[in-house]
Write a structure and sequence with these properties.
The structure is a homodimer. Chain A is α+β, with helices and mostly antiparallel strands. Chain A contains 7 helices and 8 strands. In chain A, a hairpin with a 2-residue loop joins strand 7 and strand 8. In chain A, the strands form 2 sheets. Chain A has a 6-stranded antiparallel beta sheet with strand order 1-7-8-4-3-5. A two-stranded antiparallel ribbon of chain A has the order 2-6. The radius of gyration of chain A is 18 Å and the shape is globular. In chain A, helix 2 packs antiparallel against helix 3. The two termini of chain A are 27 Å apart. Chains A and B meet through helix 2 and helix 3 of A and strand 7, helix 5, helix 6 and helix 7 of B. Chain A binds a DNA duplex through loops.
Chain lengths: 167, 167
DNA sequence: TTGGCTCCCACGTAATCCCATGTTAGCCCA
DNA sequence: TGGGCTAACATGGGATTACGTGGGAGCCAA
């Protein structure tokens, strides 16, 4: 699980250190996939082999030759960079990917559950402000209610007391 | 798995370097099949022996002498070029295939999961813009939902926590 | 015999691998 | 609670390997 945010910078050879907590979230693998976010956000989405396997399986279930499948295949598989970390955990992000999200030297690694994102510090500041405003919207907070009930109905989370009287 | 895009050019002898990552995706084989894309896109579709075997098996399941079988057999098997890479990993693409997709010297190798495509840079730029527009269509993104659920229902992806509470 | 094709070898560039160092944060002990 | 120690992490640099590219020799066909 990718959690928290970390800032990193590109060195003279074009390498970037992947934050150590993200490396352990990759489960020991040294392969990283990166592609421009599907929703048009000014960020890169990334993950390890497991995440790519998930997308691969999901896309493979779409009808061959369908518009949806072709669009998603191109957006993810064709645009993705297949990168390998060196021993200390650095990657070299292709210039075109960096340019597509306006990164010159510094960047922010943002944990997003099963994947992570890479932003330019400026773009992330804007995005963070937008999302902070969204969370203050009552509709967003109340959206938690239904899936929370579903979690309880599914048996809750081991080790966590969700319903009074259960402990 | 064919991922990412690479540009290559034809040398004075009509040879083209197959990108190294694609060569390893071919699994060590030096045989490459190429044919014009079935959907009429201005590109060539290609892959190794495994991809051809998949098409062969699929077509073989169609009724013999059926119109569909004959059409697909012609579109793939008859039009395909059966090419062999030299030691450094180059192929010589027949002139008629190049002409059919408007390639003169430069071309783009585009990864598409189990196969790859070859485009002229200009045609690919147009296609990429089309697909980028398609991805911003809510229908395309929402098309991910059903196969995503199916992936989870099928047991998810080993090593990846898809359902909250699984880790 | 000649043209063209294929196979093979050689070179320069660029990426990757590996080692070394400074720094920071966590940990233990006083 | 404070100080010192240790280990992990981020960063820099050098050497090796792989890759892409060009050219030449041998072989087959015309």
């Amino acid at each position: 699980m990718f959690v928290s945010t970390y800032e990193s910078a590109i060195d003279a050879k074009g390498r970037v250190s992947v934050p150590a907590p993200f490396r352990s979230a990759l489960g020991g693998g040294s392969r990283i996939f990166l592609w421009p976010a599907l929703d048009g956000s000014q960020c890169l989405e990334g993950g390890g082999e497991e995440l790519m396997a998930m997308y691969r399986q999901t896309i493979s279930r779409l009808p061959p030759q369908s518009r949806q499948r072709k669009a998603l295949t191109l957006a993810i598989m064709s645009r993705a960079a297949d990168l390998k970390m060196d021993d200390p955990g650095r990657i070299k992000i292709p210039e075109e990917l960096l340019a597509s999200v306006g990164i010159t030297d510094k960047m922010v690694f943002v944990g997003a559950l099963e994947s992570f994102q890479i932003w330019s510090p400026e773009a992330y500041a804007t995005y963070e402000a937008d999302m902070a405003a969204a969370v203050s919207d009552p509709d967003v907070i109340s959206a938690l209610a239904a899936p929370y009930d579903a979690t309880i109905a599914a048996g809750g989370v081991p080790g966590l007391t969700l319903v009074p009287g259960d402990d």
